[in-house]
Design goal:
The chain is mostly beta strands. Strands 2, 4, 5, 6, 9, 10 and 11 form a 7-stranded mixed beta sheet that branches. Strands 1-3-8-7 form a 4-stranded antiparallel beta sheet, with no helix packed on it. β4 and β5 form a beta hairpin. The longest helix has 6 residues. The chain is globular.
Length: about 130
């Protein structure tokens, strides 16, 4: 079964950190661009970060630059999103997605807002609150 499974969400205080994981099963990330997207209550989905399996290049939304880091562990077939200095506005459901169309085009991956992705996880909730 081809699927993505996210984990690592939870409740954290402002200024805190979390690491999200996205594990693939049934396929490998080798030929995909992988992105993290989030959706806050009442808001549209937005791109957070993307990574290209072709080059390892990464891109980030301006709102998370310098605070979030995306990485990929090929041996574990897992993509991570390290989140630091979390703010209340980072609250939302975080989804990972993989798309063959974005294998090398990591910039388009972020701009896509998730359109054109082949596989999606079910999401993990991140709540930043005191």
């Amino acid at each position: 079964q081809l699927q993505l499974v996210e984990s690592g969400g939870g409740l954290v205080q402002p200024g805190g950190s979390l690491r999200l994981s996205c594990a693939a099963s049934g396929f490998t990330f080798d030929w995909y661009g992988i992105g993290w997207f989030r959706q806050a209550p009442g808001k549209e989905r937005e791109g957070v970060s993307c990574i290209s399996s072709f080059s390892g290049s990464t891109t980030y939304a301006d709102s998370v630059k310098g605070r979030f880091t995306i990485s990929k562990d090929n041996a574990k077939n897992t993509v991570y999103l390290e989140m630091k200095s979390l703010k209340p506005e980072d609250t939302g459901v975080y989804y990972c997605a993989a798309g063959r169309s974005y294998y090398s085009d990591y910039v388009a991956c972020l701009d896509s807002l998730g359109d054109g992705m082949d596989y999606w996880g079910k999401g993990t909730l991140v709540t930043v609150s005191s």
